[in-house]
Known about the structure:
Helix 2 runs antiparallel to helix 5 and helix 3 packs antiparallel against helix 6. The protein has 7 helices and 4 strands. It is of the alpha+beta class. The mean pLDDT is 97. The protein starts with a helix and ends in a 6-residue tail after the last helix. Helices cover 40% and strands 15% of the residues. It is globular and about 50 Å long. The protein binds flavin mononucleotide. Flavin mononucleotide (FMN) binds next to strand 3.
Amino acid sequence: MIDGEKMLELIKSRQSDRKYSNKPIEGDKLKRIIEAGRMSPSACNAQPWRLIVVTEHEIVQKIAEASSSKVIGINTFVAQAPVLIIIVREKANLTSKLGATIKEKDFSLMDIGIVAENICLQAQAEGIGSCMVGWFDERSVRRLLGIPRLKRVELIITLGYSLSEKREKKRKSLSDTVSFNKY
Ligand SMILES: Cc1cc2nc3c(=O)[nH]c(=O)nc-3n(C[C@H](O)[C@H](O)[C@H](O)COP(=O)(O)O)c2cc1C
């Protein structure tokens, strides 16, 4: 079992990597990254997701077109990633949906956030860089991957051997974001 200090080191060392080499990701590493997503917890264990792993260069290029804009300079790095994981939101089970309605909380979106972070942390542990991408043309991605019209495509995760420099983490201070025993 990984010790506490090592775990925190792993969490802190993950960053959004936006530059990748064209070295392919080894199959066993990719399998473990996918497994880390699949093992994620979810409200009422509903597992309301489908992970579409895109490994074909041509499809990556088309999805990159649907996620980037050279004009505003956003997400152009997606085209460099050898692998993309597309997270589609699926129907939750009845208990999760009921709980979400009663408590007015979007449990499935929380579940998907956890899947995404598990994938990125496992990638980091495998020496693979990642970035979550939430800005993309959902309709085009749906069309490219044959995703049914009524399903939401929530996130794209880029994966690849990173060429990014390590950056200092920019985070709000402890006192601005954490308190003990009261708000
Ligand atoms: C839900 C979500 C959506 C994001 N969408 C994008 C995106 O479309 N493009 C991008 O370059 N980064 C995106 N990011 C990455 C964030 O900008 C990044 O996590 C944040 O600035 C903190 O930096 P770090 O990940 O390097 O620690 C997204 C992150 C999350 C969690």
